[in-house]
Amino acid sequence: MSGLRAWIFQRITAIYLAVFVPTALGYLLFYPVTSYQPWVELLSSPWVNTSLLLFVFAILLHGWIGIRDVVIDYVQPFPARIGLLVLVGLGLVASGAWAARILFNVIGVV
């Protein structure tokens, strides 16, 4: 990924995160969810489920770009850099798959 494209993706994900987090917190402040069944009903909504899945994707992409840039800048030995990037990438993919499985489980896909 080129520097300009990474910068653009970083900004787009930052905007989505900056809009999503206050919106979600505001909703939960005014409509508190206090037990399991209301959570299931909330997360079963296609709008909520999709926006939450996009949130997970945005935060993982945002994190990947930031961590990748730091590793490229500060880890000089090439094998260590590649190894660290592979570990971080696998961890982020696993986290994303776990979150998607949870969200798809709520709506009954998995």
From TrEMBL:
Coiled-coil regions listed in the entry: none
Name assigned to this protein: Succinate dehydrogenase hydrophobic membrane anchor subunit
Organism in which the protein naturally occurs: endosymbiont of Escarpia spicata
Function: Membrane-anchoring subunit of succinate dehydrogenase (SDH).
InterPro entries: SQR/QFR_C/D (IPR034804), Succ_DH_anchor (IPR014312), SuccDH_FuR_B_TM-su (IPR000701)
Transmembrane segments: 12-31, 51-71, 83-104
Cofactor: heme
GO BP term (any one): tricarboxylic acid cycle
GO MF annotation terms: electron transfer activity; heme binding; metal ion binding
Cofactor, how bound (note): The heme is bound between the two transmembrane subunits.
Pathway(s) this gene product operates in, as recorded in its UniProt entry: Carbohydrate metabolism; tricarboxylic acid cycle
Membrane topology, record value: Multi-pass membrane protein
Pfam families per record: Sdh_cyt (PF01127)
